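Notes, p. 3: input format for complexes.
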Amino acid sequence: MEIQLWRSLLDPYALAVKELIIKFEHIRQEHKDKDLYSPVEQVSGRVKSVSSILEKMQRKEIPLDRMEEEIEDIAGVRIICQFEEDIDTVAALIRARSDMQVKSEKDYLKHIKQSGYRSYHLIVYYTVETLDGPRRLQVEIQIRTMAMNFWATVEHSLQYKYKGDIPPHVTDRLSNAADAIISLDHEMSSVRSEIMDAQVSSQMQTNLVRDILNTIENLYRLSNPREVTKIQDEFLRIFQTKDIQQLQRFQKELDIIAEGYRAQEVFL
Ligand code: 0O2
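Output follows (268 residues plus 0O2):
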């Protein structure tokens, strides 16, 4: 196939990856805006390289006319979570969506690969709009923790370096590292609720301070600047106490003042 044909063939997959990254990042943002813990920590994606597609076609003896059906990971999205428990939550979010239909799932957490690889994979159908009309494409979504991702990234580089034939002394180290990653994920899960509480409180404070500062800025435009300077000084005093309840009380009082001036902020 000519390079130009590859480009036009892969183009809708690139669009699917871009759209899905935006959608999963939006899930993260929605949680944060609502002062909720987000099971999605990071999102990335890629379109499989032509050489990797060709290698897979050769290895699995896939003819060109079956390529799009049989190579399910031409478009790939990776969702990184903080904790192992978050993986199920993200998978459930995906299953519940109307803009993607799950074709199949592979649980490499329950069934760890021989290599030590752990991750949860879903193949979904996702439709993109192109000049030639809608295209229903397959996308592979990999969900894993940060620790699993660290291991997989390193192992993937070694597979590349040793062309799939990693020497035994390195394989042994990787296998030990895979075990260490399992215990690390379990250790982190044991303090999950404390970490989640800490992150939610910190996000709440960030959102509160953002809303308060926006209201103060609006009041500057609409009311007496001297009065607003006093309000700002009071805000700085309370902010220094690091007491979230005092900040919440201050915001309520500020909202009452702002209501009088119709100075509350609507965020877009
Ligand atoms: P890329 O583009 O470099 O990420 P397979 O026969 O394993 O190639 P299959 O059965 O279609 O293909 O898919 P599977 O097993 O669900 O895995 C596909 C992808 O999962 C791989 O893509 C990797 O990203 C990841 N993966 C699977 N097994 C391993 C592993 O042992 N180590 C690491 N590091 N990653 C793995 P590709 O094909 O490598 O391509």
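Residues 3-33 form the longest helix (31 residues).
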